[in-house]
Specification:
alpha+beta, single chain, 14 helices, 7% strand
Length: 366
């Protein structure tokens, strides 16, 4: 791997691999669009928490953080500022993406995050309103990936900021990368398919990685490492997490108790619902569920009962699916020991623990 550029504020030279890297960013979003349209089941699996997209994003940001740390280390004094701050940003994004290890290690976050975080996870970005979070991410993509990449090609504007850029150790990404970043911005703004934001975050992480790792041949090799680690991490973690028969039995007992609460009218749902149980209870006002069969289970700790968490400290979910032919299925479920959703809307997979509350199939005319 090559080291940081000698002159901190000079834009990277263009080469064939530079344009290849830019094309890869745009192609990644095209791949997401194609899979969502023609292979929705595969797309759904890849896009889930603790799936390929999330872990490739984490590794891309971590390797980008390492690259920016190398840039900072290669300089002295104030010239370390840019590399240090951008490296810190990349590291924080990676940790936020995995909720600072919550799902990785299966610990219960503080009550504040369980109550106020949109995903009941130990992170800050999911407590920001969607519109604000979208605006901030758009700002990062356009400022770094488009503005900073193209500014050195605007001679008048660059002449004004170059002295400050040199002083802070700023390394602009190569201009061709602006193509991929602009595509990411447009996709994020239009949101043309489900989970588009997850793929845009992956594109941003890979763009930051490509923008810092010296020559683009080296950058592409680091990018390949991030992709490979993204592929290997989910099955690797699943293999390392041992089964826990007692926890699995507790999960089945708790789901059966929620089934009983549903039969008694403490839990209600409607077609199209697919939500964390805690948020459904809070927003729909199903307070009677807090005094039902589920919360009365003798083995259930009060905090887990209050926030409707499974034995692995992850949220229980409710899914209500109706089809045009009248078929309806209502399920409550847990991600199981591997702490990630493996099942699809139609099929229970791997170690997910599922209780079917209602399954009604429309009669056929025979």
């Amino acid at each position: 791997m090559t080291g940081p550029a000698e002159s901190t504020s000079q834009p990277a030279t263009f080469s064939r691999s530079t344009w290849v890297a830019a094309g890869l960013l745009a192609a990644l979003l095209g791949l997401a669009a194609g899979l969502s349209a023609w292979r929705p089941s595969l797309y759904y699996t890849l896009s889930q928490e603790d799936g390929f997209v999330e872990w490739a994003t984490v590794w891309a940001f971590l390797l980008a953080a390492l690259g920016h740390a190398r840039v900072a280390r290669a300089h002295r004094g104030l010239a370390r500022t840019y590399g240090f701050l951008l490296g810190l940003f990349c590291f924080a994004v990676a940790m936020e993406e995995i909720s600072w290890g919550q799902r990785l290690f299966g610990f219960q976050p503080p009550s504040y995050f369980l109550e106020h975080n949109a995903q009941q996870e130990l992170n800050w970005h999911n407590q920001v309103e969607d519109a604000t979070r979208k605006l901030l991410l758009q700002g990062v993509i356009l400022a770094y990936g488009v503005g900073l990449a193209l500014l050195p090609r605007m001679r008048g504007g660059w002449a004004l900021v170059k002295p400050l850029a040199d002083r802070l150790g700023v390394v602009p990404p190569a201009a061709p990368l602006a193509i991929g970043f602009l595509a990411a911005s447009l996709v994020y703004g239009a949101y043309p398919f489900r989970f588009a934001g997850e793929w845009v975050e992956l594109t941003l992480g890979m763009g930051l990685l490509l923008g810092v790792w010296g020559g683009f041949g080296a950058a592409l090799r680091v990018l390949a490492v991030a992709v490979l680690l993204g592929v290997l991490t989910p099955p690797g973690l699943a293999a390392l997490r041992p089964s826990d028969p007692l926890a699995e039995q507790h999960a089945r007992d708790e789901l059966a108790a929620l089934h009983a609460d549903w039969r008694q009218g403490r839990l209600r749902t409607e077609c199209g619902v697919h939500r964390r149980l805690f948020h459904l209870v809070e927003e729909e006002g199903f307070d009677e569920l807090r005094d039902g069969v589920f919360t009365a289970l003798p083995h259930l700790p009060a905090e887990r009962g209050r926030f409707f968490l499974d034995p692995w400290e992850q949220p229980y979910w409710v899914m209500d699916r109706c089809h045009d032919d009248g078929t309806r299925r209502i399920r409550v479920y847990s991600f199981g020991a591997n702490r990630r959703r493996d099942s699809t809307h139609e099929e229970v997979r791997d170690d997910d623990v599922v209780e079917t509350i209602l399954e009604w199939v429309a009669p056929t005319d025979e």
